[in-house]
From TrEMBL:
This is ATP synthase epsilon chain. It comes from the Bacteria. The gene is atpC. GO terms for cellular component: endomembrane system; plasma membrane; proton-transporting ATP synthase complex. The keyword Cell membrane applies.
Length: 135
């Protein structure tokens, strides 16, 4: 069995996780991939999805990531996520209400920049809903 390695998950808001872990599964742009101790160095972009982190002892954490970058190096794995939040913090009814609000904002936008901002928010909420359903 692979041993633990250093994993850090960072979003623009904060450092979400900095732990020794035994495995991390990530939603890569070109497909999902898993990292174990001693993995070859590489860099990958991430698509919206769920990061699954396995801790020593077998406990599992699931965190929604909305894009970003993963870097595997000799010192471990670092994920720089555009946005990240634990799946346990997501509530389906709240996300559904946010999707409805964002759809209305897209329809009611008074300018192109307002429409684009609302469309981005709508895409983010749909990504969250999809991650919650997939988990």
């Amino acid at each position: 069995m692979a041993g633990p390695f250093k994993f850090e998950l960072v979003s623009p808001e904060r450092l979400l996780l900095s732990e020794q872990v035994v495995q991390v599964d990530l939603p890569g742009t070109d497909g999902d991939f898993g990292i174990l101790e001693g993995h070859s160095p590489f860099i990958s972009t991430l698509r919206p999805g769920v990061a699954t982190i396995t801790m020593p002892g077998g406990a599992v954490q699931k965190i929604f990531v909305r894009g970003g970058l993963a870097e595997v190096s000799a010192t471990g794995l670092t994920v720089l996520a555009e946005k990240a939040m634990p799946l346990s913090d997501l509530k389906a009814d709240e996300i559904a209400a946010e999707i409805r609000n964002a759809e209305e904002d897209v329809t009611d936008a008074a300018s192109e920049s307002a429409r684009q901002a609302a469309a981005l928010r709508l895409a983010q909420m749909k990504d969250l809903a999809g991650a919650l359903k997939a988990a």
